[in-house]
Amino acid sequence: MDVTNFYLPHTDCSPKINGFVKSKWQELWDSFPENKLYRVKPTVGTGRHGTSSKRRDDLVLTRARIGLTYLTHAYLLHGDERPYCIPCDCAVTVSHILVDC
């Protein structure tokens, strides 16, 4: 059988290669569902959470989603005791503030 050389533009290959890599990445990501970041973004992709183009906005949103805020973690920086919600008698977390309390 003769082999014929022909021109194949990278634009024809890139979508297939990118799709394959993304599917493998997703398989790996799905193998760690206990990861706190997995709860925030269970699907791999661009990394952007919304329409904002500002990295700072994405950073604040991501930290709030995973529960890492100054309000809930400042005690670690200052060497204080963990803050508790007095009415509920439980630890102060982003989820507790926004949903439970």
Descriptive keywords:
5 helices; 53% helix; two-stranded antiparallel sheet; elongated; single chain; mainly alpha; 101 residues
Structural notes for this entry:
This protein has 101 residues and is mainly alpha-helical. It is built from five helices and two strands, in the order H-H-H-H-E-E-H. It has helices spanning 10-30, 36-40, 55-66, 70-78, 94-100, and strands at 84-85, 90-91. Strands 1-2 form a two-stranded antiparallel sheet. The longest helix is centred in the N-terminal third of the chain and has 21 residues, at 10-30. The termini are far apart. 1% of the residues are buried. The model has no long low-confidence stretch (mean pLDDT 85).
Topology (elements, then pairings):
Blueprint: H1 10-30, H2 36-40, H3 55-66, H4 70-78, E1 84-85, E2 90-91, H5 94-100
Number of strands: 2
Poorly predicted runs are none
What is the end-to-end distance? 73 Å
Largest sheet: spatial strand order: 1-2
The radius of gyration computed from the alpha-carbon positions, rounded to a whole number of angstroms, is 22 Å
Outline: elongated
**Helix/strand-derived class?**
mainly alpha
Strand content: under 5%
Helical content class: 40-55%
* Biggest sheet details: 2 strands, antiparallel
Average predicted confidence as pLDDT? 85
Number of helices: 5
Order of helices and strands: HHHHEEH
What does this entry show, briefly?
The protein is mainly alpha-helical.
